[in-house]
Design a protein that fits this description.
By secondary structure, the chain is an alpha+beta fold. The chain folds into 2 domains: 216 residues, C8orf32 fold; 40 residues, no CATH class. Helices cover 28% and strands 22% of the residues. The protein has 7 helices and 11 strands. The protein has a 7-stranded antiparallel sheet.
Length: 278
């Protein structure tokens, strides 16, 4: 993402646009310190990013939603988590168990009447689904990639996906790729894959959803740091805190250890809505 390419979503950033770069960086660092002090004064849990007032999405994101709306909503089979009460800190207390550790795929073997799978491999989760198979051709139940329930195991999967996308995508600015700024699209990871920071963040989101991670716990965040300027990252919400998948870092880090000043946050359970950090 070019430093000048993203519409800043905060008034302080807009006011800084006419100032020298050094002054802008000082102002944004001061903004980050002020946010930390406010969070400490509230007793906020700094392991999580917290959502404040609603703001407009980045213009490149809005343009992407007009042409690829599925990238800007939850998968149809996933329902957003219910909003929390006054005691909920940005739905962090609404964490539900991650998906069942065992899923199955169906392999068609013949047109004979299906026989129920042996009890030893009939998970309780399939009891209500098995009757639907009896009118189908014969199938045998094959274990697929396991779905993970433990956040520690998910963290390992998240780290692998972060490294995979970072390794296979050549990072190129939008102006060089498209001749214009602020173009959002998943980068892909095939031969010749290119993209900038928001494209890698979108690709990681798609790959994590495909791996079974709930889309309602993933969101893109726009940040600033002196060394990188404006930057987009993917954030995964785990029970013990938010983790940052960064195109500029091989490691998945806790949000409090990134050194970023956060400017705007995508709301994970309603991805088309964006908010200032609280």
């Amino acid at each position: 993402m070019r430093k000048t390419g993203l519409t800043l979503l905060m008034a302080v950033a807009t006011a800084c646009a006419a100032q020298p770069a050094q002054a802008r960086e000082v102002d944004l660092r001061a903004q980050a310190r002020d946010a930390d002090l406010r969070a400490q004064a509230r007793g906020a849990d700094t392991r999580f990013l917290h959502f404040g007032a609603e703001t407009e999405p980045p213009r490149g994101y809005t343009a992407m939603c007009q042409t690829q709306p599925d990238l800007c909503r939850l998968p149809t089979e996933e329902k957003p988590e219910a909003p929390g009460g006054d005691g909920c800190a940005d739905f962090a207390c609404l964490m539900t168990p991650l998906p069942s550790p065992t899923m199955f795929r169906i392999e068609v073997t013949s047109q004979a009447k299906m026989q129920p799978p042996p009890p030893a491999i009939r998970p309780a989760a399939l009891v209500q689904v098995i009757p639907l198979f009896r009118a189908m051709p014969s199938v045998r139940m094959m274990p697929s990639a396991p779905m993970l329930t433990d956040d520690h195991l998910w963290l390992e999967r998240i780290a692998r996906i972060n490294a995979h996308v970072n390794r296979h995508v050549k990072q190129v600015e939008d102006l060089q790729s498209y001749g214009s700024d602020d173009v959002w699209r998943p980068a892909g990871t095939g031969p010749g894959a290119t993209g900038d920071c928001e494209d890698l963040a979108l690709e990681k989101r798609q790959e994590l959803i495909a791996a079974g991670f709930p889309a309602s716990r993933l969101f893109i965040a726009i940040a600033f740091r002196q060394e990188t300027g404006l930057h987009a990252v993917l954030v995964a919400r785990l029970a013990d805190g938010d983790r940052v998948l960064d195109s500029g870092n091989a490691f998945v880090r806790p949000v409090a250890q990134t050194g970023y000043a956060w400017l705007s946050l995508q709301r994970p359970e309603t991805p088309d809505r964006w908010f200032y950090p609280a």
